[in-house]
Amino acid sequence: MSVLAAIRPDDWNLALFVHVLGALALVGALATAAAYLFAARRDGSLALMRAGYGALLIGALPAFLVTRIAAQWAASKEGVLDSEATWIVAGFVSTDIGFVFLVAATVAAGLAVRRAGAEETSGELGRSVSIAAWLVGLLIVVYAVMIWMMTAKPG
Fold first, then answer.
1. Tens digit of each residue's pLDDT, the chain (155 residues)
2. Nearest to residue 108, comparing CAs of 127, 84, 81?
3. What's the CA gap between 113 and 111, in Å, rounded?
4. Phi first, then psi: what are they for 28, rounded to 5°?
5. CATH topology of domain 2-152
6. Contact 59, 32 (CB under 8 A)
7. Of the candidates 136, 138, 132, 140, which has an alpha carbon nearest to the alpha carbon of residue 115?
8. pTM of the predicted model, to two decimals?
9. At what angle do helices 86-118 and 61-78 cross, to 10 degrees?
10. Which of 40, 66, 75, 150 can bridge 48 by disulfide, Cβ–Cβ 3.0-4.6 Å?
């Protein structure tokens, strides 16, 4: 495989670099958000909830957009937009569905922060934080599998 990388046209490099950088930033932001949200779920800390929400809103959402736009750009540069390769199809499907989960996790975390600020019941508060934390955890697992698929290129 390293020989293939050596003969890849130079005009693909920027699109691929931006895609990989965005994906790594996305996974990092998700891991940060998960750590904060699971900790907030455990002890109900408003500061931890805000940090988890901020990691999603300021870190994960922009990184997702960079990843997805750069993936489209790289695929068009490589001429594989209509490819039936498993790793390409899985990448586009996982980001399309993952976006819905990411938005849902961000909204749930935002609601948890808002409710914590209003000091409502801890039962509802715990549910919102739990939903956000588990959705982010699920996204991390999905994107870890996608990182493997992008590097191993099965099928």
1. 444 555 666 777 899 899 999 999 999 999 999 999 999 999 888 899 999 999 999 999 999 999 999 999 988 887 777 777 888 888 899 999 999 999 999 999 999 998 877 665 455 567 899 999 999 999 999 999 999 998 888 76
2. 127
3. 5
4. -65, -45
5. Four Helix Bundle (Hemerythrin (Met), subunit A) (1.20.120)
6. yes
7. 132
8. 0.87
9. 170
10. 40
